[in-house]
Design a protein that fits this description.
263 residues, mainly beta, Jelly Rolls, ten-stranded mixed beta sheet, seven-stranded antiparallel beta sheet
């Protein structure tokens, strides 16, 4: 009996120690109403297609497209005939505000729906070390295209592995209530691998090949991006519905830990 009790107490103690090891190093809980916190976020602005033939114009400091409301970050797309391609949206970044090399990044979000919507939670490198995209790498924590409802994608892009040559590495998970409930989209990124998770469950792992940057450029700081695109080379493959707007992505929180807080 004493031995069993000792084993149990040791197990509990180890669990407590592991839980304390994870340290929250950055977060936004979206507690202040109004525009997103300028100390934490900047905007990409424009309507040139963003390399993907997208239709939206990304605005800046416009409450219609990006605001904090009832403790949530709202990114909202509107049909707007005043813009040449007919839509406005927002793309928020932590570039030059916060970036991380390795860690556990999680975003609790509820996604838009409808043909032509293309929400994304993703990461790009802070510096241009190796050259233009995709040489520096890209980590897509969550992507969803509205014509394929509920199929959540997690993907990496590098010079060797990217969609332009059909070699991208990724996985997907089916989430039926993607637009009615919040889910936690996350990566656990270490020197050895990047795990992709939804609600704490790993559904894809990209391992460090130990080769050069063409396969693993993920040894440098990356910043976070949250946006909704409209149409585009992927999101618009089956056209864009005209009767679904406005559409929004709601973000409950963004949290960055130095390691997985659940391990």
């Amino acid at each position: 009996m004493k031995t069993t009790l000792l084993i149990f107490l040791t197990f509990c103690l180890n669990l407590g120690i592991r839980a304390q090891e994870a340290r929250l190093i950055w977060s936004d809980e979206f507690s202040a109403e109004g525009l997103p916190d300028p100390k934490k976020w900047i905007y990409d602005v424009g309507g040139h297609g963003w390399g993907n033939e997208e239709l939206q114009y990304y605005s800046q400091n416009d409450l219609k497209n990006a605001r904090i409301e009832n403790g949530k970050l709202i990114i909202e797309v509107h049909a707007d005939s005043l813009y040449p391609k007919g839509y406005t949206s927002a793309r928020l970044l932590t570039r030059e505000k916060a970036s991380w090399q390795y860690g556990y990044i999680e975003v609790k979000a509820k996604l838009p729906q409808g043909r032509g919507t293309w929400p994304a939670i993703w990461m790009l490198p802070e510096a241009n070390i190796h050259g233009g995209w995709p040489k520096n790498g890209e980590i897509d924590i969550m992507e969803h295209v509205g014509y394929d409802p509920g199929k959540i994608h997690g993907t990496v892009h590098t010079e060797a592995f990217n969609h332009s040559i059909g070699t991208q590495q990724g996985g997907f998970q089916l989430i039926k209530d993607f637009n009615t409930r919040f889910h936690i989209y996350a990566i656990h990124w270490t020197e050895e691998k990047i795990d992709f998770l939804i609600d704490g469950t790993i559904y894809f792992t990209f391992e460090n090949t130990k080769n050069d940057y063409k396969e693993w450029p993920f040894d440098q700081p990356f910043h976070l991006i949250v946006n909704i695109a409209v149409g585009g080379a992927w999101g618009g493959q089956q056209g864009v519905a005209t009767d679904i707007w406005p559409q929004r992505m709601e973000v409950d929180y963004v949290r960055v830990y130095d390691t997985n807080p659940t391990e």
